[in-house]
Amino acid sequence: MAAGDRAKQKISERAQGFIASAPVPQEQILTGAQVMSGVSRGWALLSPSTRLFGRPYYVALTEQHVLFCWMSAWTGKPIQVPIVAPRWQVRVTGARLSGQLGWFTCQVPGREKPMTLRFYRFWRPEVEALLGALGAPA
């Protein structure tokens, strides 16, 4: 098992264990991936301190819900589940899966602006499964 696969497995296990103990709908997690919200990569390159404005999430998809589990940027441990949205209300409005750092944009109920979430290339299979299950445009 490659180092990247071990890291993905560890992050997924931590998030899924936390979600199972959190006061959210208890459903089986079908797929999930670690993503980051916040400023774009270009701004992060210009000023490394802008990375402090981003938040890492583990996005988990169940039969009925999409859960956003906020992860610690320093330790990778789950902190809270701030967003629980019915699956049919989350709408993917755009995506770019190629390159070192891909992204997708989704409209989540309760938020005025769409969320742009970025992910690293080794999370691409999980993100593709997530977006496919949400009915993202090809």
Spell out the blueprint of helices and strands.
Layout: H1 3-21, E1 31-37, H2 41-46, E2 55-61, E3 65-71, E4 78-86, E5 91-96, E6 101-107, E7 115-120, H3 124-133
Structural overview:
It is a single chain. β5 and β6 form a beta hairpin. With 138 residues, the chain is an alpha+beta fold. The strands form 2 sheets. It has a 4-stranded antiparallel sheet with strand order 1-2-3-4. Strands 5-6-7 form a 3-stranded antiparallel sheet, covered by helices on one side. The chain has 3 helices and 7 strands.
Work out the helix count. 3
Number of strands: 7
Given helix and strand content, the structural type is: alpha+beta
Q: Into which percent range does the helicity of residues fall?
A: 25-40%
Give helix and strand order, one letter per element, not per position.
Answer: HEHEEEEEEH
Q: What number is the mean pLDDT?
A: 84
Strand order of the largest sheet: 1-2-3-4
- Low-pLDDT segments, ≥5 res: none
> What Rg is obtained from the alpha carbons, in whole angstroms?
14 Å
**Could you tell me the strand content as a percent range?**
35-45%
Spatial separation of the terminal alpha carbons: 31 Å
Q: Can you tell me the overall shape?
A: globular
* Major sheet description: 4 strands, antiparallel
Notable features of this structure?
138 residues, three-stranded antiparallel sheet, 36% strand, alpha+beta, globular, single chain, four-stranded antiparallel sheet
